[in-house]
Predict the structure of H-NS histone family protein.
Amino acid sequence: MELAKLSLTELRRLQSKVETEIRRRSDTARRDLLKKIQKLAAEEGLSLSDVIPGANVAEKKAAAPKAKRVVKASAKKGTRVPAKYRHPEDATLTWSGRGRKPLWVEGWLGEGKPLDALLIQQAA
């Protein structure tokens, strides 16, 4: 195969195939070596983590097939955070201090007044 005769697109496609094959072979070699080491350790009555501290992580990675990462929703998502700031005249208007500032807070700050003046006093 003469690389000089390939177009840029063909070279990139070839590069991608080569990188994929290198990753595949590297992973296979790593798994095979880990299995050999585990077998040798087992023959001596030891686990891989007995021989190599922290190897239990490597054992789990080698034993489990690669799966796509699943992102789980946070257990706290949607839970309300207690209000930290309250409007000085309308007690129904509150803000937790998280996320975008409400317009009434923006107005308060725009007048040059300190945010600390809106803090809700916590009972001690």
